[in-house]
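About this split. The held-out portion is used to measure sequence recovery: a designer receives only the structure tokens and must propose an amino acid at every position. Recovery is the fraction of positions where the proposal matches the reference. Here is one held-out target exactly as it appears in the evaluation file.
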């Protein structure tokens, strides 16, 4: 099945799934948990009976991006559609807006997709009884040019990679490093190499419970001091230093982790020795096999010598690094400070609890953004909900002391979209004003002051995630001195439609394929207002303009939790940074 044939917001069912519930569909999966999760993630919404004639077969529309909105009206007389240009049914934006589907006047060209071999070898959908057009027919002729043509990449909308680079370089680097208690360094980046402050192990250590022995056996069994009968420890325990030298031909009980006495040549495991009573009241230890020198002793310095570099500067402090640093003798670490972010959630329509009602909806971004930022090693105060009021927004941004203010919503040009006017009022330098990416194209980045920035995320939740990974993450990564994630690419397990000119960000999940190894399976429910796809995703695929065929290797942006990057410190109720003005 060609991916994208059904991926609209109207809940059309893939073939064979019509009329089944989501759980039925999932239950009939292979029984493999992965398949079931995928089925659940990709199961369709209930059929809502939208006949194909109402839009399923229509080339839908995509709007001119944010930066050209002001000019769109000027063009609308020639297109008869407010600047909309036709697009295909998998356009996540247009699918969110059925009203936008009616005014297509021409079809866009998608050069690489139209030669998509997987597609052309796929099932013939031109005779689809549901009346949907085949993907091929949706390709249409080349886009017209001339006076009536509105480019989708507006003058101000930057290519996706360019926008990321600008965000990454918006600051020259991290602020000066600081020294903190060991535990507080979690999720930060080391500012200096981690050199061992001690040998590890710092003494010859028994690796097993048993006996330290000296020379070839059998051995006369000693007790370190006193005897087990008078309550003294039955040998050398971890944390104790043996006072006496072990004489040749003698053995002494020893615990794992205990310091091996001088004179010992090996450790014999408890299960490998047998103690026999002697007629003189003493005891002798026998072993069926010889105990070669060094057996079951971890020698001092085996892991490192004092001064050895354990990790380079720039390493991320993970829980394992905290453990290593503690083992190597550190009480404090010198690392770059966590960037401080303040999240301002805009929208009078948002509720913070209960069910959506009377046109109001739940705030999905407050709960999503704070922990996501924490996973990136950012100190984010509890998100603040602001009323759709220009003065309130102005005051909140002007008073913020955060390194990065992140707003959600209000980036478009609606009656209560105050972000652009507020940035003008603040005299901010807008570095990125719209990105040629779907979803999320109205995202923006502005410099409020030399070391203070604002990332404006669109209000649609997946569009906000797109803005987060495109602009916020690279900026915060530079501020935190975190290394960029290793480039990761995987072939697509199914073709993905592209936007004619813009990059697409599409949630994918990993699957193992016998022939190709790890593949990225695109998920449905990737519309800009939807989080269902990304909630089941392992990564976000970066789909180039024009789309990609099955088997095409795509750049993947791993999600912090699947990339193992979410080492980043979880603020306790009292340790989180409190932004000025927050309750
Ligand atoms: N005339 C045009 N209108 C719009 C364009 C355009 O190019 N021309 N672009 C559309 C696109 S694409 C997006 S994305 C949105 C961006 O709008 P805003 O950033 O101003 O966001 P809002 O209008 O405030 O909200 C959009 C949408 O998202 C919902 N929302 C907002 N915040 C949240 C939240 N925290 N949790 C859940 N949902 C949220 C909000 O209710 C709206 O439905 O603009 C389009 N319009
Ligand atoms: O598609 Mo918008 O670009 O929903 O962010």
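Reference sequence for scoring:
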């Amino acid at each position: 099945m060609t991916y994208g044939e059904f991926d609209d917001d109207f809940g059309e069912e893939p073939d064979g799934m019509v009329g089944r519930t989501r759980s039925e569909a999932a239950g009939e999966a292979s029984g493999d948990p992965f398949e079931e999760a995928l089925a659940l993630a990709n199961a369709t919404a209930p059929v809502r009976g939208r006949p194909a004639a109402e839009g399923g077969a229509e080339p839908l529309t995509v709007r001119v991006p944010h930066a050209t909105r002001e000019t769109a009206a000027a063009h609308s007389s020639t297109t008869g559609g407010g600047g909309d240009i036709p697009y295909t049914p998998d356009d996540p934006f247009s699918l969110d807006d059925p009203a936008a589907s009616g005014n297509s006047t021409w079809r866009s060209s998608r050069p690489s997709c139209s030669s998509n071999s997987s597609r052309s070898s796929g099932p013939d959908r031109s005779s689809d009884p549901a009346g949907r057009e085949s993907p091929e027919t949706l390709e249409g002729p080349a886009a017209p040019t001339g006076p009536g043509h509105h480019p989708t990449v507006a003058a101000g909308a930057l290519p996706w990679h360019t926008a990321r680079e600008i965000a990454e370089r918006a600051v020259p680097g991290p602020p000066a490093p600081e020294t903190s208690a060991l535990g507080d360094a979690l999720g930060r980046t080391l500012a200096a190499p981690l050199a061992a402050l001690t040998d590890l192990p710092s003494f010859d250590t028994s690796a097993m419970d048993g006996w330290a022995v000296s020379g070839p056996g059998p051995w006369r069994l000693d007790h370190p001091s006193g005897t087990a009968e008078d309550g003294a420890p039955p040998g050398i325990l971890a944390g104790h230093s043996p006072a006496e030298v072990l004489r040749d031909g003698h053995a002494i009980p020893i615990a794992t982790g205990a310091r091996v006495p001088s004179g010992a040549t090996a450790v014999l495991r408890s299960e490998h020795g047998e103690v026999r009573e002697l007629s003189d009241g003493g005891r002798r230890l026998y072993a069926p096999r010889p105990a070669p020198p060094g057996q079951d002793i971890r020698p001092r310095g085996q892991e490192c010598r004092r001064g050895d570099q354990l990790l380079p500067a720039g390493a991320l402090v993970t829980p394992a690094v905290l453990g290593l640093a503690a083992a190597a003798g550190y009480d404090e670490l010198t690392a770059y400070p966590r960037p401080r972010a303040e999240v301002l959630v805009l929208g009078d329509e948002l509720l913070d609890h209960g069910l959506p009602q009377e046109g109001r909806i739940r705030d999905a971004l407050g709960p999503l953004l704070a922990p996501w930022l924490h996973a990136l090693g950012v100190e984010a105060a509890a998100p603040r909900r602001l009323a759709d009021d220009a003065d309130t927004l102005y005051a909140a941004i002007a008073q913020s002391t955060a390194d990065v203010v992140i707003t959600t919503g209000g980036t478009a040009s609606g009656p209560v979209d105050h972000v652009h006017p507020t940035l003008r009022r603040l005299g901010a330098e807008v570095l990125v004003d719209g990105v040629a990416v779907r979803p999320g194209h109205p995202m923006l980045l502005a410099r409020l002051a030399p070391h203070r920035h604002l990332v404006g995320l669109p209000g649609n939740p997946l569009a906000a995630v797109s803005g987060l990974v495109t602009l916020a993450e690279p900026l915060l990564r530079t501020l935190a001195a975190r290394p960029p994630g290793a480039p990761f690419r995987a072939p697509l397990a199914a073709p993905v439609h592209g936007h004619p000119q813009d990059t697409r960000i599409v949630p994918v999940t990993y699957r193992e394929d016998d022939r190709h190894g790890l593949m990225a399976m695109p998920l449905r429910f990737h519309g800009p207002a939807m989080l269902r796809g990304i909630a089941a995703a392992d990564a976000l695929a970066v789909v180039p303009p024009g789309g990609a065929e099955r088997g095409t290797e795509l750049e993947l942006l791993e999600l912090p939790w699947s990339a193992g990057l979410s080492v980043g410190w979880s603020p306790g109720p009292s340790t989180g940074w409190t932004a000025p003005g927050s309750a």
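Annotator remark: The chain is about 20% helix and 20% strand.
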